[in-house]
Amino acid sequence: MRPLTKKVKFRLDIVKFLMVIVATAGLICYCGSRTAYNWQWYRVPTYIVSFESGKPVPGLLLKGLWITVQITSLSLIVTIILGGIAALFRLSDSWSARIIARIYVELIRNTPLLVQLFFIYFVLSPVLNISRFFSAVLALSLFEGAYASEIFRAGIVSIHKSQWEAAFSLGFSRVHTYRWVILPQAVRRILPPLTSQVISLLKDSALVSTIAIYDLAMQGQAIVAETYLTFEIWFVVAFIYLVIALILSFCVHYMEQRFKVET
Amino acid sequence: MIPSKMDSLMSETDNCADDYIVSLDRISKTFLTGIRVLQEVSASIRRGEVVAIAGPSGSGKSTLLRCLNGLESIDGGTIIIDGIQLTDSRKSRTRIRKRIGMGFELFNLFPNMTVLENINLAQRLTYGKSKKEATDTTMALLEKIGIDKKNNCYPSELSGGQQQWVTIARALALAPKIMLFDDACSVLAPEIIREVPNVMKSLAGDAMTMIVATHEMGFARKVSDRMIFMEGGRIIGEGPTEEFFNEPGKNGCSNSRAGCCNDHTRFIESDTFQDPGRFLRKTMRW
To answer: Is A261 at the interface with chain B, CB within 8 A?
Structure first.
């Protein structure tokens, strides 16, 4: 048989792609029609945005989204700080610092987030007088910080030993070497895996609904309980998470381009 | 340390400070794997001398160099550089590192900075120079080595030889008294090494001491005044380079061997150097 030309191969590839898309869409439509579910999409928009005397008023879902964004961004900041400290502890010369960081990472990584959230909210917060909102932020950042620290550590360790030696031989201190030589190079390698972690953080933030914080997921749940618009609301909620996550990905992709270093 | 002991050490240091810039006294080091990489190594190096440390791979020559500026710690013995004893304290390490520049096996430039920034950064951090002062020094150096037009290039945009020069310029910008070259022959042309003291002299008007670790005899011959031979973590011989190469008959080294030395033959690969210890015992009569 004669080998296919590049052009023919490309066209065949397009056809296969379209077939997969059509099949998937068909399956969804078929399932939707067979469930005998009464789709009421027209009721959904009021939960996103409604109009009172011409002025737009955010609906319940948008209010929930705002809480989600607040929790996620606050947790992200604390996550990066915690993760950074834990990574530096793991890489330090001090035995006790290393063991503390190790215990933190292993303990947090190997227990469910839900249990940690309950522990902080029901056990710690009454004693330390932490609000519901900050209990959630604390639990999420502790959890994601453990993962982030491993990402940071991997990024720092991946920078070749010779860079440290060159810096030391020029009389740099450890701090200066990190600041000027190691971290600028490590950032580029840290960003891609860190993006996945941030997206995890965004999605894990849905768990705070279990301690009755009215974030996006909790609002969705409340609306469903009230209106029985189960599929419509959950689809919309999922779509909003998707959009936010995609925006995050694009931001990080842009940053990656900026930090690009030729080696 | 007991004061009296300290005093004797200080006076000792003062006495030899003028002649010897590097004094090693019975330094030893054992790797965590149990390999005794340095065993009671003692050596002295005069100011302005160019010394080649030769020996097969694993003989400890690289480790010895890295111990000199504190990149590796030692288990025993004393290292005194320019009158300063190298201890575990950060202060002594920093003082010694200011006096020692190092040229690396790999080029080791910082890939996230331009050539100018690479050379400026060390001056600014280690000596606290202002940006303008640092830039002036850097540009003067780059002009000397003929790549001043590349000052805003990143290391990846330079050729291998240019990168090597920039690495050396970065070390020279700190006006070191000693330059160390680790396994220099694998990347450096002898001409470059020979040029380093001239560049330095024209900049600082100072004699530069250089220590070059290599396993290529031809290279060692071209650059050094004196050679130190190492094997299995010990110094097994030393002597002026010319004496060693120029009187092969007298020392029992045949012409063909001297010939192969000239051709940059690898120390470890040539037949003669299969057992460097035996070869040297035969040739040098110590």
So the answer is: yes
* CA B219/CA B152 separation, integer angstroms: 33
- Which DSSP string corresponds to A78-118? HHHHHHHHHHHHHHSS-HHHHHHHHHHHHHHHTS-HHHHHH
For residue B127, how many other CB atoms are within 10 A of its CB?
Answer: 15
Give the C-alpha separation, B116 to B169, whole Å: 10
Structural contact between residues B42 and B26, judged by C-beta atoms closer than 8 angstroms: yes
Give the domain ranges of chain B. Answer: 3-284
Q: Give the number of residues written for chain B.
A: 286
| Set of chain A residues whose Cβ sits within 8 Å of the Cβ of B100 | 169
A184 and chain B: CB distance < 8 Å anywhere? Answer: yes
ipTM of the complex: 0.74
Closest-CA distance, B30 to chain A, in angstroms, reads: 19
Could you tell me if B234 and B218 are in contact, meaning their C-beta atoms sit under 8 angstroms apart?
Answer: no
Return the CATH architecture of domain B3-284. 3-Layer(aba) Sandwich (3.40)
From A173's Cα to the closest Cα of chain B, the distance in A is 8
Tell me the H-state helices in B18-130.
61-68, 90-99, 115-127
Residue B98 and residue A171: Cβ atoms within 8 Å?
Answer: yes
CA distance A93 to chain B (A): 14
How is residue B55 annotated by DSSP?
-
Contact residues on chain A for B90, CB-CB shorter than 8 A: 173
Q: Name the residue facing A170 among B111, B113, B122 (closest C-beta).
A: B122
A93 to chain B, any CB pair closer than 8 A? The answer is: no
Chain segment B190-212, per-residue pLDDT in tens: 667 667 666 655 655 567 888 88
Under DSSP, is residue B262 helix (H, G, I), strand (E, B) or coil?
helix
**Cβ separation A185–B111 shorter than 8 A:** yes
> CA-nearest residue of chain A to B104?
A166
Q: A121, A211 in Cβ contact below 8 A?
A: yes
So what's the pLDDT on residue B190?
66
Backbone angles phi, psi at B259, to 5 degrees: -60, -45
Q: What is the pLDDT of residues B167-195, one digit of tens each?
A: 888 888 888 888 888 876 565 666 676 67
Evaluate whether A155 touches A178 at the Cβ level (below 8 Å): no
Inter-chain CB proximity A169 and B125 less than 8 Å? no
Q: In the structure encoding, which two tokens stand for residue A88, read together?
A: 């530096």
- List the CATH code of the domain at A73-208: 1.10.3720.10
